[in-house]
Amino acid sequence: MSIKSNLFSWQVRQAALHEERQIKAFLNDVSRLPKNNSELLTPVKIKCLKPFCIKGKTIEPGQVVEVERFVAEDMIFLKKAEYV
């Protein structure tokens, strides 16, 4: 083999190794993504201020219902409910 072909094959291997290192680094970063907080699934009581639907049922103003915390926080943010 000539020096030129050896150099070319070396460059191809180096490029492949570099790409493999980048992929491994990316996969390591993905594994450190935040986990879901289990507190978001705890039930809390809210009082309805404006009508909305949960699981196909209409909740009327004044009603007190128990929902998961993540649903409650969304409804409170939208000013449709408040904590009891």
Question: Could you explain how this protein is built, in words?
Answer:
With 84 residues, the chain is of the alpha+beta class. It folds into 2 domains: 1-33; 38-83. It is 44% helix and 24% strand. The chain contains 2 helices and 5 strands, in the order H-E-E-E-E-H-E. It has helices at 3-30, 69-77; strands at residues 43-48, 52-54, 57-59, 64-68, 81-83. The protein has a 3-stranded antiparallel sheet, covered by helices on one side. A two-stranded antiparallel sheet has the order 2-3. A hairpin with a 2-residue loop joins strand 2 (52-54) and strand 3 (57-59). 6% of the residues are buried. The model has no long low-confidence stretch (mean pLDDT 90).
Concise summary:
The chain is α+β, with helices and mostly antiparallel strands and 84 residues long. It has 2 helices and 5 strands; from the N terminus they run αββββαβ.
What attributes characterize this protein structure?
84 residues; alpha+beta; 2 domains; three-stranded antiparallel β-sheet; 5 strands; 24% strand
